[in-house]
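Review form for a predicted model. The reviewer records the input and the model, then writes brief findings.
Reviewer: anonymous (R2)
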Amino acid sequence: MNRSIYGFNDTVDNAVMKPVAKGYKNVMPDIAERGVNNFFNNIKDVITVINDLLQFKLQHAANDAGRVLVNTTVGILGTIDVHSMSGGDRRKEDFGQTLAVWGVGEGPYIMLPFLGPSTLRDTLSRPVSSFLSVTFHMTEDDVNIALKSIDALETRERLLDVESLLSGDKYVFVKDAYIQSMYYEIKDGIDVKDEFVDDMDDFLIDQ
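Model under review:
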């Protein structure tokens, strides 16, 4: 079933998302792309702060809250990542990671239509993560839909060059990459040696 859904997602991606992402990349100046990426990262950092608190990572919560404050104000609504420019690290926490810290097992691996790789735990956490997001509470539906669409497009554009890293059985490659990345984020990179994740992080930062 997972392979069939992966095949469906790949077909949709090749027919729609990939061509649109390439067009976006061709017309958007690099500085504008970085600004859009920083803007959405800043929104997601709010979710990180909330999950820091739910995981009782108070020091991380203070650091990440400071990041949001600095980037939202000095960084002009997050379009400039002032915190990283000052040497700060960006972390990512979602409700799936919070459930893992609380001791909830990951369950089976699941490939979701349109949304891609997941686990049962991460799939069940999605409604809560959506509720915690800033865009969920926007009353203007048009603005909400526009922001989510641009976020999806920007994310797909950043993955264009990453496709060159795919080799062998692409389904297995994507699955292994997702599982390794999930464990790395849950452990906050502590006592986890994952060359694949390190290389991917370096690659995306360089972009």
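Findings: The chain has nine helices and two strands.
Further findings: Strands lie at 109-112, 116-119.
Recommendation: see findings above.
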